[in-house]
Amino acid sequence: MLALHGFDAYGVEVSHTAVDACEVYAKAQLARPEAYNFGPGSSSAQEAGIRGKVKFVVGDFFKRDWEAECRGDGDAGFDLIYDYTVSEVK
């Protein structure tokens, strides 16, 4: 959804299978976005076809080795890191 609004987005997941599924889903959404990705009155971004890039990385969020893969394309860092389900077990 973020990429559909022009933002570059990265996903980190420990499962190769999940990353593969995410890549397929993102490609389909970027090509033919569903209306639920856009709120009422926000059709301008949808009509303009503004797209950010999407990249999924296999990695352990807490080891941070995945960051090198994301920064390999010249990015200096992240504006926002959003965690949906990660919980650290000690």
What does this structure look like?
With 90 residues, this protein is an alpha+beta fold. The protein has one domain. It is 30% helix and 11% strand. The protein contains three helices and two strands; from the N terminus they run βααβα. The chain has helices at residues 16-31, 43-48, 67-71; strands at residues 9-13, 54-58. It has a two-stranded parallel ribbon. It is globular and about 40 Å long. The model has no long low-confidence stretch (mean pLDDT 80).
The counted number of beta strands is 2
Distance between the termini: 33 Å
Average pLDDT across residues?
A: 80
**Total individual domains:** 1
Helix content: 25-40%
Q: Descriptors for this entry?
A:
globular; single chain; alpha+beta; 90 residues
Short characterization:
The protein is an alpha+beta fold and 90 residues long. The chain contains three helices and two strands; from the N terminus they run βααβα.
